[in-house]
Amino acid sequence: MVERLIPTALVEDNKFCPGCGHGIINRILAEVLDEMKLTDKAIGSMAVGCACLMVDTFGVDWIQSPHGRAAALATGIKRCRPENPVFTYQGDGDSMSIGFSETMYAAFRNENITAILVNNGIFGMTGGQMAPTSLPGQKTVTSPMGRNTDLTGQPLNIINQMKDLNIGYLARGSVTSIKNINRVKKYIRNAFETQMSGGGYSMVEILSPCPTNWKMMPDKSLEHIDNTVTTYYPLGEYVKKGGDSNE
Amino acid sequence: MALKLMKGNDALAEAAVRAGCRFFGGYPITPQSEILEYLSKRMPEVGGHFVQSESELAGISMVHGAAAAGFRTMTSSSGPGFSLLQEGISYIASAELPAVIINVQRYGSGLGDIFQAQGDYFQAVKGGGHGDYRMIVYAPASIQENVDFTTLAFDKADEYRNPVLVLSDASIASMMEPVDLPEMHEHDPNKSPHAAKGKGNGPFKRITSTMYYIDDFDTYIKTKYDNMAANEERWEAVQVADAELVLVAYGITSRICKEAVMLAREKGIKLGLIRPITLWPFPAKAFKALPDTVASFMTVELSPMPMIQEDVLLSLDTRKPVHNFLAGMNIPEPIDIVEKAADCIKQTAKGACNG
Amino acid sequence: MNSIICSGFGGQGILTAGLILAKISMDGGKQVSWVPSYGSEMRGGTASCAVKVSDTEIYSPFIKEMNTLVAMNEASVDTFERLVKPGGVLISNATLIQGRTFRSDIKVVEVGATAISEELKNIRGANLVMLGAMIQATGLFTPEFFADGIDAYFDAKGRNTPLNRECYMAGVTAAEQA
Amino acid sequence: MSKKDSKKSVLTLHPERCKGCRYCIPTCPKDAISVSEKINQKGYKPVMVDMETCIGCGSCYTICPDYVFEIKEVQ
Known about the structure:
- By secondary structure, chain B is α/β, with parallel strands linked by helices.
- Helices cover 40% and strands 20% of the residues of chain B.
- Chain B has helices at 8-18, 33-45, 56-68, 79-94, 121-125, 143-160, 170-174, 217-231, 251-266, 284-288, 308-315, 334-349; strands spanning 4-7, 21-26, 49-52, 72-77, 99-105, 136-138, 163-169, 176-179, 206-207, 235-238, 245-248, 271-276, 278-280, 296-301, 322-326.
- Chain C is an alpha/beta fold.
- Chain C has 6 helices and 6 strands.
- In chain C, strands 2-3-1-4-5-6 form a 6-stranded mixed sheet, with helices on both faces.
- Chain D has one domain: 2-Layer Sandwich (Alpha-Beta Plaits), CATH 3.30.70.20.
- Chain D is 17% helix and 24% strand.
- Chain D contains 3 helices and 4 strands; from the N terminus they run H-E-H-E-E-H-E.
- Chains in contact: A-B, A-D, B-C.
- Strand 2 (61-64) of chain A pairs parallel with strand 9 (206-207) of chain B.
């Protein structure tokens, strides 16, 4: 049995909605930074979306970028300060819609940064509009009849876009259970270890519930991820160069 | 120091390096690509960083990141690319970070064309991005000024913690003149008060719009830009002491106008010239200081529609006619400027108004 | 104020000729400017550059009417001959420009620059032959001062050969005899 | 190492942070968590824990998005 204390980076209560997965992800990210003794050196690049709510509550140096451009900012920071752990923290609308180009090109250049991409399948902060990651038939405020993939394309699987690139680490996890949370924490740790050993681009996509905009009770949100979302976005490690193997 | 014969773009890029710029992110577009080409080789030589970004949007955001890390940093673009930079410029201004932006103007809206022009004036000086910000805009007219004002731009960006724009054009970019380069200046990024470098034992930094953290932000930001406006006007006045008509032109066009002034004087026509060196703040003081002999003005612009004319009108205490010579896409001939100016002097005497 | 336009096919080293002229003039204590041809009217294989050399401040770097035209090909003469000031100098590459009647109010020096450079086994040196003829015909600098400048220019680039100076001097000699 | 054996994991509850998502309730292996009736400062009915039943396993800490639970070791 070990102590489970709130990590030092969580300096204030978070501002997310009840049942939001960001709260869990914030905590495990903070735990990893503490355990790796990186909290004092880390520089985070956030853009626009619910992730912005971390700027006052998650106590590392933050730089806020224009919507979608977090990976480009992180590139500028990391090239200038290669000794510092530099990470992006973005939602799927931010990183995969408006910021698809910046996200992909950071991976394409194999920038030595860590990307935390939180996928809840919608634009959360603006009220639950359809995102590239929304599922076929998913009802959102901008796909009221359900997402029509003939008109809007298939759900964007960012892992499939990146897995053949020359990058350091790529994994997808979820926060639906103790087991999954512990596993995604391991992924995040692997990602930062990749970066700190100069292993190149590392990305962890995390399937996360948005009970508010999904209009689901929190417990049903977790079930929805396990039963449905993961069929489109399978969990696991996809690229792993160096480091220990755990799966 | 020995003079060096350099192209405008190369000289500008070398000036940035010597000003301590150690990060450049940018995207190719004619006629500024030589700045990228030069820095792709030069930055590694001085321990700096060069990234050819996937777009101007990414390039300016990389610059934003490097500025937040405390580095002296720059991007450059032209026309269509300058439009894409506006997002990042607005964010950098809002975060009160220093950065230097270069726009080597080319002709036209949309795709336009690659030859010299001055059509980005409004976008440059009226704030092309969203929200409430201003940028000091320097308009070099020679290769030496490309060097001098790029150097100054880095100092002013640091002084005000604000992006500063150098508005060059395709002519200055590609021509060569002798330059006297400054000594190498090293900038210590760790001494930048705003630099993100990890919180260490102290409080964490939030490099975002400063409006979130400043009481009475409206007053604060207005005071900041009022101070810039009051203190940063620069201009050159040529033969204005007894002028009847004063030409107003900046950058490459001002040099043609200078030749026109000399030509006019040979013919006994009393022309003068005000050359704004800063386009924002526009040198209103230059106009307030003019003698009573000046009865009218004529702007000379490398664009098919008047732009500077508007700022000249705003700078005049009394309503005097402000004519314009719109050269469009063609380099004007000094003699043509003199002839139109002479005509305007006559029109003014007859009470004709602007246009 | 001396206004010089160097013009020819792309690849004839015409921009370099102008650049060498500007560089040596700068080292000779002159004010100089060098502007490459720009704009759609200059497309179609013809390249030119405008060089100003002056003892006083150069205002506009652009040239409409010139003191001297260095024409490497026929098209250059077509475009620029009419803009040479009366009494000005036109250096014509006689290898490529033949059977032409030139204006009578300008000094025309015909030099077989391409042929001379071929004879000297330095085909890329035709622009230097033209420069030699231009310096001789205009008296802008002494031929020797300029020859040393050419050596210095190529030395600085780390690719000088005696052929460069030979080409240039052949141009000086040809202009003397023309 | 003998000291470790004498340590005990004790849960500390921060009910003022609770937003009532109730992820913790089915996650608790001992069914020690339930919803309290009084409303906290955030306007939610926070969870409460039966300390007699709690074994300090930390499952609630792991699933909670709002840092309501901490596990501390005491002698």
